[in-house]
């Protein structure tokens, strides 16, 4: 039979060709016979569809001037129109033509036929719309640091699975994503060989070839779909064999930039540009280096020259974009210093940090976005690790649409970079406990659909959006539009819970915290002991009060302002209930994808149980804080009742998750600290957490009992033993001092110890010169024959002359010696100094150098590493924190 429709397109453009193929598939699926031609025949009668790029040679030869219509002059824009009986799908560029073909294919699918007449123009708002894939794993590889994962089939079997890539890339193009980022610490040693550093390569010959082949495959397939592949890397990391060869470490935040590091990295970057000319670079000047001077130096003297060297080899005179992340650096300063050398710089910054918390961002983090978007032509908003959404299903189009609006209107961003909704560290899987692991791209289809849809156009009418999503959902799960509407409601109600809870009660948006596992009472009543991430409260939500401020104001009868804790707990419990009601209502009409629907339903129940658990806990915490002001024991007893209730809901959460989830958080290392350390992959399920929450309840009960026994007097505290000091050999020429009342820790009278925690009584400190520490930092050299912990005292203040304690939000390696948590809060009092918190660094036997950044910090001595030490708030300065009630 003769073809009924002829599709005519420019076969030389891979994107046009790909779009043409997809359109043909859609038309053929409706039983219409098609043929593809390369040029427009003049003598046939069939209906013709041409797909073309406006202004191209092909266009000029094939599209008659009288049927040409204007396409907006914007990258990726397109117009589809009919004239006579023919259809013209014209793109401003090849991506525009691709999208025109796909749009037409979509319409054919929907209406089961080609349109009779049409004139439709479209163009994207966000110019880059990309997704992230972590070439990373849930745990560290033996002997390697964070982000150090060579590209090998053992580490990433899925990376070599071409079918999986095709599915993923198809999903991306369907949602009109046009960029794909691969994240890794130091990818170069898996992808290029250097003449001067042959030993740097960290994969075998066979793997190297496979990697070349996969990059070729991936970039070619991506390009067909209008997708630009971008490789991300962290600075300064070197490969393991390179480090071993030169007897250095692979990464060290405090390291100096040496000619060797410079040369190796510059050559790596140059070779990468030369070999993979279509792959972009995303640069993180952080984590494994520090100090703005170093950052600027590295970017301008190593990264940019490396890119330029590569371009020169290729005899290219254009400047492909280099994307700079604002993470852990002062990006506006770096960009300003780099502009004279390289013009085509894009910037990127995290949207709400490493969580999704608000569409009303403000504060210092918004300022970073605004500064960057006013400097660079393209500023990308990065929806980074979704630490507060793991592991349940998230798909609130309403929240997502408003977030994209905030990216444009508040931050000035014009591009999006999206992380997977869950399990970034475990891609391509989800944490669902199913017989066959679910693929994240499939489970979280709505996540990709929604962000892609609004990145393209965020000004869509809400009512029409409700209909659109209701239809999408009813198509997926069967049932009427009403059924779809109920599912949408469930998603949107549940979609408020984690954002609201984290921004009002969390310690950090960073993946240091896994919100949905819950929080301890101490974290609610004494959050600063858990090191609230500076800027978090001010940036990631509307103005409001955290619980301790709220309780104080209540007690003082002061007016409240903004979002309050009681408001949020009443809202989240309502959202939880509404979500469950809506999903249960939908359940009656669902007829397809039933197993997945049940999992979704279970997630809604889990969110509901979480909201109830959390709210009861907040009520308890509020009463505990009230007791702290009033001393009324009855209030504490009330608190215990709420805590008991919260446990009941937590048990429900355990029941709902134990057969449904493998874990809550995909980063399963000691970088996870809240609610509790995730060392060796522990405490990643609700079941594992439950006994700890029971214990804190029992501790409270026991302490109430003791308080009651003591009548109005104070209860007798357990005697606290001093930590056992350890023998070490100090290799730095330094004076030592006994850590006791009256000692001077610096050479000035006001640096005198006037009170201290009994734990510190037997220590012998190491004296440093204050000015020397502020200007050059602290270096402590010692030798030990048994494992020891170095006891350090960090000043709790914003004075830039004091060293900031290790911050995991910008330094994922900041806990490799167990130093990230405060071991003793408020543990030492000097005559004239802020509170001092104790952090400890563990060292195995050997010779060591502890290098700390610039600023005051106390080295209070060494203790035997394997003794049991209890973390607590000592309260030597000011009032003792109330969280002792839970110890
Ligand atoms: C933090 C976080 C890491 C990673 C990093 C980044 O250090 O803990 O997991 O996301 O930020 O690159 O932004």
Automatic annotation (TrEMBL):
Alphabetized UniProt keyword annotations: Hydrolase
Keyword Hydrolase: yes
UniProt xrefs under SUPFAM superfamilies: beta-N-acetylhexosaminidase-like domain
Domain of life: Bacteria
Protein name: Beta-hexosaminidase bacterial type N-terminal domain-containing protein
């Amino acid at each position: 039979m003769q073809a009924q429709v002829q599709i005519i397109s420019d076969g030389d453009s891979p994107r046009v060709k790909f779009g043409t193929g997809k359109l043909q598939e859609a038309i053929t699926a409706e039983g219409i016979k098609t043929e593809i031609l390369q040029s427009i025949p003049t003598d046939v009668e069939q209906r013709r569809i041409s797909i073309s790029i406006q202004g191209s040679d092909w266009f000029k030869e094939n599209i008659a001037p009288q049927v040409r219509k204007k396409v907006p002059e914007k990258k990726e824009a397109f117009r589809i129109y009919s004239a006579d009986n023919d259809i013209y799908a014209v793109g401003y560029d090849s991506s525009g033509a691709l999208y025109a073909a796909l749009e037409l294919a979509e319409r054919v699918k929907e209406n089961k036929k080609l349109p009779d007449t049409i004139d439709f123009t479209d163009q994207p708002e966000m110019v880059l719309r990309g997704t992230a894939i972590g070439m990373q794993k849930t745990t560290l590889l033996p002997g390697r640091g964070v982000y150090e994962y060579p590209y090998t089939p053992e580490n990433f079997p899925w990376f070599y699975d071409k079918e999986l890539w095709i599915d993923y890339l198809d999903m991306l193009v369907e949602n009109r994503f046009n960029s794909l980022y691969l994240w890794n610490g130091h990818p170069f040693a898996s992808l290029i060989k250097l003449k001067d550093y042959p030993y740097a390569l960290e994969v075998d010959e066979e793997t190297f070839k496979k990697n070349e082949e996969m990059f070729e495959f991936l970039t070619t397939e991506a390009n067909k779909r209008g997708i630009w592949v971008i490789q991300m890397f962290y600075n300064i990391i070197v490969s393991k064999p390179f480090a071993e060869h030169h007897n250095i470490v692979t990464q060290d935040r405090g390291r100096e930039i040496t000619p060797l590091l410079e040369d190796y990295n510059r050559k790596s970057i140059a070779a990468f540009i030369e070999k993979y000319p279509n792959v972009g670079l995303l640069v993180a000047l952080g984590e494994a280096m520090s100090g703005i001077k170093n950052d600027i130096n590295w970017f301008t003297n190593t990264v940019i020259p490396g890119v330029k060297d590569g371009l020169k080899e290729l005899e290219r005179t254009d400047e492909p974009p280099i994307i700079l992340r604002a993470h852990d650096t002062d990006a506006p300063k770096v960009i300003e210093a780099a502009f004279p050398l390289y013009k085509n710089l894009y910037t990127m910054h995290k949207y709400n940090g490493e969580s999704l918390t608000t569409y009303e961002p403000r504060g210092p983090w918004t300022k970073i976005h605004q500064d960057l978007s006013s400097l660079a032509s393209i500023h990308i908003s990065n929806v980074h690790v979704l630490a507060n959404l793991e592991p349940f299903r998230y798909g609130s189009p309403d929240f997502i649409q408003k977030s994209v609006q905030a990216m444009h209107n508040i931050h000035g961003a014009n591009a999006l970079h999206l992380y997977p909704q869950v399990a970034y560290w475990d891609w391509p899987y989800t944490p669902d406990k199913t017989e066959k692991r679910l693929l994240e791209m499939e489970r979280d289809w709505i996540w990709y659909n929604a962000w892609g849809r609004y990145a393209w156009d965020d000004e869509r009418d809400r009512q029409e959006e409700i209909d659109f999503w209701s239809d999408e959902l009813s198509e997926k799960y069967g049932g009427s539009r009403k059924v779809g509407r109920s599912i949408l409601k469930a998603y949107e109600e549940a979609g408020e819970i984690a954002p609201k809870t984290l921004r009002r009660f969390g310690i950090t948006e960073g993946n240091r915290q896994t919100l949905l596992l819950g929080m301890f009472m101490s974290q609610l009543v004494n959050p600063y002991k858990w090191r609230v991430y500076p800027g978090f409260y001010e940036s990631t939500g509307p103005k409001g009060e955290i619980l301790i401020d709220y309780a104080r104001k209540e007690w003082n009868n002061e007016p409240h302002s903004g979002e309050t804790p009681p408001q949020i707990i009443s809202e989240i419990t309502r959202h939880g209930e509404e979500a469950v009601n809506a999903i249960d209502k939908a359940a009656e009409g669902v007829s397809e994808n039933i197993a997945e629907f049940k999992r979704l339903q279970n997630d809604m129940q889990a969110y509901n149980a979480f909201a109830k658990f959390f709210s009861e806990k907040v009520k308890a915490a509020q009463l505990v804080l009230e007791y702290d002001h009033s001393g009324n024991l009855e209030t504490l007893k009330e608190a215990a009742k709420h805590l008991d209730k919260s446990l009941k809901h937590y048990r429900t959460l355990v029941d709902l998750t134990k057969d449904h989830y493998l874990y809550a958080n995909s980063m399963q290392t000691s970088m996870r600290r809240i609610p509790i350390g995730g060392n060796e992959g522990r405490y990643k399920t609700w079941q594992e957490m439950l006994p700890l929450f029971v214990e804190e309840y029992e501790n409270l009960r026991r302490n109430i009992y003791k308080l009651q026994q003591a009548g109005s007097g104070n209860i007798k505290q357990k005697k606290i033993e001093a930590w056992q000091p350890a023998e070490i050999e100090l290799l730095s020429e330094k004076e030592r001092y006994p850590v006791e009342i009256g000692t001077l820790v610096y050479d000035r009278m006001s640096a005198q110890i006037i009170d201290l925690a009994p734990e510190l009584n037997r220590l012998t400190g190491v004296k440093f010169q204050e000015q020397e520490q502020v200007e050059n930092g602290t270096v402590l050299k010692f030798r030990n024959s048994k494992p020891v912990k170095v006891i350090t005292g960090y000043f709790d203040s914003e004075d830039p002359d004091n060293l900031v304690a290790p911050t995991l939000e910008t330094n994922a390696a900041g806990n490799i010696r167990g130093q990230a948590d405060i071991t003793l809060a408020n543990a030492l009092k000097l005559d004239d100094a802020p509170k001092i918190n104790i952090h400890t660094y563990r060292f195995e036997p050997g010779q060591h150098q502890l290098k700390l950044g610039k600023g005051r910090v106390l080295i209070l001595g060494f203790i035997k590493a394997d003794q049991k030490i209890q973390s607590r708030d000592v309260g030597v300065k000011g009032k003792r924190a109330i969280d002792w009630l839970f110890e």
